[in-house]
Amino acid sequence: ATYNIRNLFDGIQDPGKEPEQAKPEKEKVALSQAMHDINADIVGMQEVESKATLTQFRDKYLTDMGYREVVLIEGNDTRGIDVALFSRYPVTAVKSHKEVRFPVPGEAQPVGFSRDLLQVRIQGPNNYALTVFVLHLKSQHGGDEADVRREAEARAAQQIIGAFQKANP
Questions:
Q1: What is the rounded radius of gyration, in angstroms, for the C-alpha atoms of the chain?
Q2: 102 in helix, strand or coil?
Q3: Strand ranges, E, within 9-161
Q4: What DSSP character marks residue 24?
């Protein structure tokens, strides 16, 4: 599954990041209920502050879900929102694409993903391995300029995933 869990912040100001508010308890309870209802073996998530914040959420609300793997690499977002992953199965490799640069029409220099394109290799049941990509495009706030950036990010992700598919048919 994939789920934009919307601003899972701890409310503690991080150096160099924009101010944040902690996700209200009521919303965390509702989020945990939704995740229980979905009951996915693997969940890609968007808008997570940190691995520590996500681990605390798991340990408080999802102890019965079997998510032994928590993956998050700090990305490029100035608010500190990242992409992440829970898995019931072992994670065997993690790769970030946050350093990849690509052209954006109207920008003088190539830019990177607003957050990250996270690539995670998972060893599933019956010796089946799979690779999951988790992406959260640039916010739609910002009109046409944001749309141009989102499209450039989507094209860059398409190229990376396409190259991965070609190398791993």
A1: 17
A2: strand
A3: 42-48, 69-72, 82-87, 91-96, 117-123, 129-135
A4: P
Contacts of 21 (CB under 8 A, 6+ apart): 7, 9, 11
Contact yes or no for 18/46 (Cβ under 8 A): no
pTM for the full predicted model: 0.92
Residues 92, 71: contact at Cβ < 8 Å?
Answer: no
Is 45 exposed, middle or buried, given 0-12, 13-18 or 19+ CB atoms closer than 10 A? buried
What pLDDT digit, counting tens, does each position of 26-58 carry? 999 999 999 999 999 999 999 999 999 999 999
CA-nearest of 164, 46, 52, 160 to 102 is: 160
Sequence-separated (6 or more) residues with CB below 8 Å from residue 35 = 3, 43, 61, 62, 65
